[in-house]
Design goal:
4 strands, 4-stranded antiparallel sheet, alpha+beta, 2 domains
Length: about 230
């Protein structure tokens, strides 16, 4: 169904010569498809999380892999030598999240396909996978939004902060975790900082009112986490 641009009499690389026209077609196609992948990365990431260096890598990586495939050809010795070089590069690279790693593998697959001369097939897999990525991002497939909030509560020193609000938290929260405890007002008060996730369809006002009744109407602060504020 899909045919390589290299004919049977002109393999990608031989020990003597290279088909310059076909090679240029492979490299240019790889760069264009890499540009498409980088545009998808820009669309699915926030400005804060976006890396210009990673965008550049997504553009040139398919072309680099394509060149490697062209140079290796059917030479087994070259294949093992280049595999060793890629291993060294792998261990000097910084780890990324699963999304970034998936895009890197997509870029490498594009380069491998174009390096073998299957330009049409490379374009098709690029379009299919990019559309799937955009669709998943658009529909938030498999993603349940849980807004983490920061709760700061001041209590008297004679109150046990570890269990003081357990019944209230069970009523209004999905999850709560103590992040920090410090003393204030010359040690007469405790300030406890929680990371919390509230249950659906509960009233924040009622939640705060019950906390106020429990802590003697001392200071209470409820706000979003810093990273979520930056993403808005």
């Amino acid at each position: 169904m899909f045919e390589t641009i290299f004919n049977n009499n002109a393999v990608p690389v031989t020990d003597v010569s290279m088909d310059i026209k076909s090679t240029l077609i492979c490299i240019i196609a790889s760069l264009l498809l890499g540009l498409v992948v980088s545009l998808v990365y820009i669309l699915i990431t926030t400005h804060k999380d976006r890396s210009p260096n990673f965008i550049l890598s997504l553009v040139i990586l398919p072309a680099l892999v394509s060149v490697v495939i062209l140079l290796v050809g059917s030479n087994v010795a070259r294949a093992f030598s280049i595999a060793g070089v890629f291993t060294l590069i792998r261990y000097r690279s910084l780890p990324g999240d699963s999304k970034d790693i998936s895009l890197v593998f997509l870029s490498m697959a594009i380069g491998l396909t174009t390096g073998l001369g299957y330009i049409t097939f490379a374009a098709i897999i690029t379009i299919i996978f990019c559309l799937v990525i955009l669709l998943i991002k658009k529909t938030n497939f498999g993603f349940t939004r849980q807004v983490e909030k920061r709760l700061k509560v001041v209590i008297p020193e004679d109150m046990n902060y570890q269990t003081a609000f357990d019944d209230i938290f069970d009523k209004y929260l999905k999850r709560s975790e103590i992040q920090r405890v410090k003393t204030t007002n010359l040690g007469t008060l405790y300030e406890i900082t929680y990371h919390i996730i509230m249950k659906d369809n509960v009233s924040e006002k009622e939640f705060l009112d019950e906390l106020r009744c429990r802590n003697g109407n001392l200071t209470i602060q409820l706000g979003m986490m810093e990273q979520q504020v930056q993403q808005l």
